[in-house]
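Structural prep section.
Before we set up the soaks we want a predicted structure of the protein with pyridoxal-5'-phosphate in place, mainly to decide which crystallisation condition to try first. Input record follows.
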Amino acid sequence: MKFSKRIQSIEPSLARNLFNRAKMYDNVIDLTLGDPDYDTPSVLKKAACDAINSNKTHYSANAGLIEARAAVSKNINSVWGICADPQNEILVTVGGMEALYLSLFAILDPDDEVIVFSPYYSNYVQMIKSCDGKPIVVEAYSEEEGLVITEDMIRSAITDKTVAIVVNSPSNPTGAIIPKESLKIIADVSEEFDLTIISDEVYHTLIYDGKEHQSILQFENARKRTILIDSMSKEFCMTGWRVGYLFGPQELVSNIVRMQENIAACVSLPSQYAMIKAYEDGLRCDYVDKFQARRDYLYDRIVKIKGLKCRKPQGTFYMFVDISATGLTSLDFANLLLEKEQVAIVPGKMYGKNYAKYIRIAFTKDMSILKSACDKIEKFVNELVV
Ligand code: PLP
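Run finished without errors. Recording the tokens verbatim:
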């Protein structure tokens, strides 16, 4: 059988690799995927069960049920303060991932370039490649300052092939929040070079220390060129329901809808009914305090381990830890930690070539499990670092 160059260029996910291998151990602590452990709120489960029991289980419009898009519009209005037209500017998608993929598919021709800030959610790079585009990776992270994006960084990455820029805040894998000043720079430079902004805000409800979410959509000049990506996965602990959405300019959405017919046709109807329930009722995520307590605990433990360093995440449920003092690569660290202590984490290599000395820990498990994971990581690192 012949395989396309495109499919061969897609690298397997290291997070999935560790997640799959973790399953082979009995008492493993799995802190790999960004999959929160809390249950989906009961009202949303009921909405989906009611949909099934009343046989609302057929295809919907490709863009999603109009009631679901109206509910999304209400959510956009309440979170971003923007009036989004449910008929023309919203598409219900199979999670944030499909929203990202469809967006890239809609705007990329072969060799078009997309700017991605590093360390990045690795799916961006794989998706850009699978749409025949070229990811242009810009280093933007430091342990001292977090994710600060300057005008020079963007300008030096722009060529006559640049068509888009991906912004992810709060960010996976660092948990950093891109400051408002950097978002303004991205908006201004994107306007100057007529770039599409893909703003992945799937973690917008997971922000700590009482801070407010900052979106690039607050800048007037970004609005007509931004595709907002959001999802129910992280906010409502609904990763397996596969439901999210995108909001963007009418001409873009009308183009993407044609492709949705050929990919998923539409999102599963029970998931769409849960979406209607959540956004119509203005249900909000009440897990933030719990994740913040986990973050605080994990951070305090990790920075006390000799040989580990990290910046405190401002959002998400990820901690990006510098392991360079252990002398191991992120891959060896992850493999050995799994084999010796049965704790699974993700090698930083997955998030950019400069991060082979980092690991990502997802604090998606209960405090008692995190405690045990910290004890094991501490023991493991103490044996390495003298
Ligand atoms: N964007 C980011 C930054 C993510 O980390 C993820 C999942 O981990 C997604 C998008 C997509 O999530 P989903 O497709 O479950 O909505």
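Observations: Residues 34, 95-97, 121, 168, 172, 200, 202, 231, 233, 239, 244 surround pyridoxal-5'-phosphate (CB under 6 Å).
Flagged for discussion at group meeting.
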